[in-house]
Amino acid sequence: MIRIAIDAMGGDFGPEPIIEGVVQALEEKSFLPILVGDKNEILSLLPQYYINKVEVVDASDVIDMADQATNALKRKESSIYKAVELVRNKEADAVVSAGHSGATMTLATLRIGRLPHISKPALATLMPSIGKNKTLVLDVGAVTDCTPQNLYEFGAMGEAYMEKAMHIAHPRVGLLSNGSEDSKGNALTKEAFKLLKNLRGFVGNVEGKNIFDGSVDVIVCDGFTGNILLKTSEGVVTTVFTLMKQYIRKSLPAKIGALMMRKKVFVNMKKEVDKDEYGGAPLLGIDGCAIISHGASNAKAIKNAIFQAMAYTQSDVNKEIESLLSHKEG
Amino acid sequence: MIRIAIDAMGGDFGPEPIIEGVVQALEEKSFLPILVGDKNEILSLLPQYYINKVEVVDASDVIDMADQATNALKRKESSIYKAVELVRNKEADAVVSAGHSGATMTLATLRIGRLPHISKPALATLMPSIGKNKTLVLDVGAVTDCTPQNLYEFGAMGEAYMEKAMHIAHPRVGLLSNGSEDSKGNALTKEAFKLLKNLRGFVGNVEGKNIFDGSVDVIVCDGFTGNILLKTSEGVVTTVFTLMKQYIRKSLPAKIGALMMRKKVFVNMKKEVDKDEYGGAPLLGIDGCAIISHGASNAKAIKNAIFQAMAYTQSDVNKEIESLLSHKEG
Question: Does the pTM of the predicted model rise above 0.80?
Answer without folding.
Answer: yes
